[in-house]
Structure formats: structure tokens, C-alpha cells
Amino acid sequence: MTAAGRQRRETVRMQAAELFEQKTKPPEVARRLRVSLKSAYQWHRLWRDRGREALGSRGPSGSRCRLSPRCLEKLAGYLEQGPAAHGWVEDQVWTAARVATLTGTKFHVSYSVSGATRLMHRLGFSPQVPARRVAERDEQAVTAWKEATWAEVKEPGRPAEATSASRTRPGSPDGRPKDEPGAGAATPRL
Prior knowledge:
Blueprint: H1 3-21, H2 26-33, H3 37-50, H4 69-81, H5 96-107, H6 113-122, H7 139-153
Helix pairs in contact: 1-3, 2-3, 5-6
């Protein structure tokens, strides 16, 4: 949930607390604040048992980060050094899988690929996808093949006058000439 969403939720809960203090019943609170009846009753129970503070924000939801702030700082430094500094010399791309591996080796903390993606976003990085190119690719040979061979092999498109925009209907098997190809193929379905 975004910060704006959390702020709105807390504002609505505080409005509910004000209404409860004015002796407004939960169904009326639900109607006025446009929330579910279930939420209004839960909020009322919290307000009644623990007071207005019980309806306040409990901070961002979700699981907490498994890396300490100091480790997050170190990880950001490692990411800024680049993949080659940590053994990935084939390309200079931080993939989520590589970051998950890096956190496992440096901090002994296991992250899934999706978790590593969220971790990277938290640090201001975005995972990248490496270009899939063959290492032995000869660009000159590819260009020559496209210009010479592909031009010969490629089939020409249909000429514009050969197309039609009219609707077609399946013909009646009775209306076909007997000597037309496929005339005997159509049999009535039962």
C-alpha cells in the first residue's frame, strides 16, 4: 500500500473514533465513512477496549526487511561497484537473481528473486535483463546474409488487388456443380 493509502486509512479510522465518541453506532459510521460494516464493528471494538490510540497507524504493513540498515548501506555500495567486482564478468547487469546470490554470500540471508527485486527498488536500483546474444556472433556475416539471402528467400506479400473486403457465406452443397473440386466432401450433419 502506498503512503497516501496508509494516510487515508488512518484518517478514516480517526474520523470513526470521533464518531464513536459522539455515541454514533457502527452501522451509521460505516454508512458515513463508506466502509464495510465489518470494519466499523472491528474499529468500534478496538476503540471501546483500548481507546482512540488503538485506531492509529501501526506503521507500514508487510514483513520487515531482513537486512539491518547497516547491511542495506553495504549492499548499496556493492551494487554501485558493479557485477564485475563480485565475479560476474560476462556483462555489467544486476539481475534480481544475482542480487539474491550476493545477499546470500555477503550477508548469509536468503532472498527469492521477487524479494531481491523489492530489495533493489528499496535501495533505488532496478533489476535488469541481460541481452541474449551469442558470444561468437559475427555482425558482418549477419548483415550480409540479411541483404543477400533473406531477400531471395522471403516470400513476396499478396498484391493489393487480390484481397477482398466482402463477407463470405458457406455455399449450399446442393448449389455446387458436381464436377467442382470438393463437391462430394460436404455431407449434411444429423
